[in-house]
Structures are given as C-alpha cells and as structure tokens.
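INTERNAL AUDIT FORM
Audit reference: QA-55
Scope: verify that the stored structure record matches its stored sequence.
Auditor: D.O.
Record contents follow.
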Amino acid sequence: MSKSPRVVFKFENNNVQQTTPLLGVSCFLARTEKGPYDDPSELITSFSQFQRIFGKEIVPDGSVSNIEKALVGGSKLRIIRVLGAGAKKGTITKAEDSRVLEEDEIELASAIPGEVQASEVMKFTSGGTNVSFGLVTKGYGDPIGSGETFKVGFSKSVNTIFYNIYDANGSILESGPVITYKTKDAQNKTSVDYLALSNFASNSAYLEPKMVTTTNKIKSFENLVAWLQTSIDQTENPLTIQVGGKEATTTETMFNGTLGTAGADPTADEWIASLDLVKDYTDVYQLACSHIHQHLKTDQDVLKVHKAAKDMCAELQEYTYYIEVPKYTTHYSEGTQPRNKQSIITWINNCLGSIGNSRYAAYFAGGIKYYNEFGLLTNSDVLGTIFGLGDTSASNYGPWKSFAGMNRGVIYDGQGPVSPNYGSDSRYNELDELAQMYANMIVIKDTPSSGKQTMLWHCFSSQVKQDSERFLSIVRLNLYLKKTLRPILNKYLEEPNIWSTWKNIYLEVKPILDNLVDENAMSEYTWMGDQDAGSYSELSVNNEADVRQGKYKVILKYKDIVPMQEVTMEIVIDAASNAGRVTIGNLIVEKLMTTAGSDTWLQDWLYSCQDMIAGGGLVPSEYWETAIVNELAEDGVSVLNTWLLEEVWPCKVTGLDLDRMASENTIENIEFSVGTCDKY
C-alpha cells in the first residue's frame, strides 16, 4: 500500500546522565561527648572522622558503640546529637571577667538548646558604624584539650591579627590568622583581607563567631564580611579594629573559654524533637535511636520515641526505622539476664501494642558478643552491626538485596548472640515463632566453608499483610526507586507539558529500570505513560483537561523478586538394579476356583506364609517359590519372551462372584510378590 512522503522522528537518547542516589547512608540519633547539635550535614565515613567531630558515643552499659560498629562495618552516617534541657555552648570572655557557670545557674531549656550571649571579642569601626562579634564553642560541652577550661589569645604582627587556642596545660591546640587589614594613608586606600576572616570562622575546629553589636544592615557574621568587602575594602573609609576593647598589639590579649554543657539527660520529648533534623536528608535509608533503651529508664518513654519515629517514617516514606529489642530482661536497671524466645516475643508484642505495625519499621533482637578495645568479651547492642550489614549490602549489591543470611549477613568479628542460639537446626520451631513475630535475629549457623559463623537471620519488616513488603529488601527497593526517580522527574518541572517532554522522561528513566531487571531487583516492569502519543486524541493514561493544567501521570508496574525463604528437597532411596535384570512390582493373575475342594495348593501356600490359626508361618526362604512366565504373541500360542521370577509368594487373594446361572465356579484374583525378574 502506497503512503504519502513524510518525515518521521524517533527519539533515542544515548546521552543520558543517570542520577543515582548515594547508597549506604544511615542516620543515628545518639548521645556523644561533643559535637554540633543541629548539623548532620557532614557525612561521616570513618571512625576517626567521627572521633574528631563527636568524640565518643555515650553508651551507659559500656558495651561497644553502635556508631563505631556501623562505621567499621561500612556505613556512611549522618549523626544527630541529642541534647538535654539546659544545653548551652561555651563562651569566650576576657580573662579578668570570665568564670564557669555553676550547676544551679544552668538554665533549663526546651529540647532545642537556647542561644548563649557572647561577650565582645573583636570590634570593627568605620565612620559611624560600629559592629562586633564574640566567640562561642562549636559544640556543647566539648572536651577541648585535657581540661574543662581553655584560653584564647589574640596578638598583632605587622598588619595581621593572629589567634592561639591553649588547652589547660598551656599547649597550643590551634592557631592562625584572623584578619589582615591596613587603613588608608597618603599612598593607599583602606585594604581588608575579608577572606581571611571568613576562613577563620569556618575552619576553626573549636570556635565560631557570634555577632554581639549589630546594625540594621549588619545582623550576621556573613553581613559583616560583605560589609568589609563592599563598603570598606579599597575605599577611602578608615577602619579600626579592637581586640578586647583596645588596639591589638604584639602582646597577647587573653580570653578564658568555657566548654558549655550538654545539659541534663535527654527526655523522650527531647529525643523526639531531634527527629525533625532528619527531614532535610532524603539520602538516608536506615534510621535508629542508638542505645535509647539504655538512655531512657522506662518502657513507656522508649515506646513513646519509637512511636514518634515510626509515625514519621510511615508518613514520609523515606526511611526504615530500626528498633532494638533490649538484650537484657532488666535493661533499665543494668541487668545481665539475656532475653530468651518468650521474652523477645513479649517485648515485641508490647511494642506493637503501642506503636503498631508498619513496613517502615523492623525489629532486631538477640544482642551480640564482641571483644572490646581491652580484649574483653562484651555483650553489646546490635543496631550498629545491622547498619553496617545493610549499608554494605546496599553499596555492593543494591538496597533491594536482603542483608541477612550466609552471603551478606555474616558478622565475621561477632562471637554469637547474647540470647540463646536459636540458629541451631534443633531450634527451628523456636526460630519460626520469632519470625512470625517479625524478630530479625542474631544467630550462629553452620556455613559450608567456614564452619560456625555469627550472622543475621531474617530480614523482615513488621508489616502484618503477607505481601512482598514484609521483606525489607522490597521496602528498600521502593525507597531506591523514589530516591532515584525523584530528582529526574523534578528536573522536568516547568518544562513544556507535551509528549516530547514525556518521551524524554521515559528515555532517561528506562536505562535505570532496565538495569534493575538485570540486577534481579525486579523480573519485569511496565511503564504506562503517554510517551508515544503525538496528539491529545492519542492519550490513554492521561486526559487533555489534566494535561492542559500542567499534570502528567505515569504508572510504573513491576514484578518484584523476593528473597528465597524455603527450599524443599525430596530424598528417595531407589531400588537397586543390575544390567539385564529387571525388578518389577507385584504380579496379578486370575484362576478358576473349583467347588470340589480338591484345589488346595494355593491355600497350603498361603498357610505356609501365615497360618491364621497358628499365628505364624514359615521363614521366607521356605515359602519363596520360582515361577516361569511365558509372554505370548497375539495368536495366543507363540512365545515371544520367557521370564524367570524368583522369590515369589502370594500376598493377596480375592474371590470374585460370577453369575450362578452361568457357572458353578468363581474366579480368584491372586497377587504375587516378586523379588527378582530375569529374562531367559
């Protein structure tokens, strides 16, 4: 059939930059000995980096830190430091005026720490403008140096003001330039190295500036730097800078520093308030409150936090929340009795009764034994280990793979669970009961090549519905799809809402979905959009009215691949056979039974097998017989094959009634047991 000439466009995008979310990222709410409160922006990738910023994790029972195990296990972490009422940053004040706050002077604040009033350290004057800043510690109760106080000295050399931070022993912890400047003279305009001031503010490990005296236009430290750059530098405007109320000299002007305080032990409400800081970071897959059952002293408080965290995860659908089943039955009083199966089930039941089930919440139980830094075998919590397993699996294999079992769930430095080992084969029924209660367990299992190994067994969410989202791997796959596709789809917002745009979306997303099929994240998928439409009349998923309001809808259907949960093997012991020899089943024949009573050979044979009156019979070798069977051709005469049957004996005889008008005889069905059958 002839067609009119035309130009046809087919879209094929071979220059697509795939957007892949950062994998292996988790978030811990934790108590640490130092560090920022409200800034989880720095991604922690090593334990040394964590120690530099946050010091140590506070673990009341002295067991191995969750954060340490997570980082060593391969996690990348966002850390949210939880503070209590009264938390304040330390201040820097003139040596003659400074003092450490007494305990009864600490203000009880809300969950979010209150602002501290800084003392003036450096004052800038130009024309009629006067602005100044003070310094506060970057953390709350930071252990700066070896003591509880420290000193800061400022001095001037030529045109540069320098600073030194001294610990309690007088050793310099940090030093560097603060600002270089020169006011105008006959040959030069005013010169200010505003970048040095900015670097001082951002690069110090211990201190940060806080404005003390401001103007309507200069309210922040950033405003101060901008003012120096635009209004003072390279102008005729004179500038004076004072340190501690006087012109800086080569003699250090000394200030005393206080460390601040982390406040009281955080309450449940303060843990909950800190959850809000997670919301700015959607790269996180796993979220937990580290060692919270040790920090809070009642089940009621612990469950209150768990419920708030679970509700947030269920609402946002951005993270999975992991809950630790305490390893001891009396954990609030620092008991040492490990939880057994029933205790674990009871605790999870109580938790579910308070917070409810969710595909975005999972339970981990059993505790785990590690050798600590002193070489002592220590009973520890498990969530840090779980984070390490989950993040390493996500980075190496994809978040859609289970991180339990012998391939991705082995904990090589683990020394077994604190609870009884429910991983032994003889305890399968108990392990099954724990699985039915959503308990993901630390167990010891025999491996094919490495003997007994400690590992995570089960990878379930706490979803009630028995669909695929009861597996954490499927929940994590859905999170991956969301985190991967969202930035791609966001990129097309404000673009023309037309089929060419829809085609480009499809072409950019398709390689990602194809890769998920290749990686066994899904077996197949269907992208139901209108990317192939060329007019409003060709729309199938969308409609013209919605499209012309800026709306476009796509339905992505996929068939998930869940982790294998059961392998059944049927083992059958087959009968032996020899070449040229056939082993057959029973032989069934028919014979006439006479009424005269003279045909007794069969009855005698039966009695030799089992005499109903005597209660027994001969031994098999005495009643076994040999029989010859001829296989006849269709003429009923010619013999095709002859078979020798050995170890033959009658095992069943049945008489069939015939029509008495036709015969005086009945037919017997005889079933013979046959041991061997050989062809003659």
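Auditor finding: record pair retrieved intact. Residues 581-679 form one domain.
Action required: none
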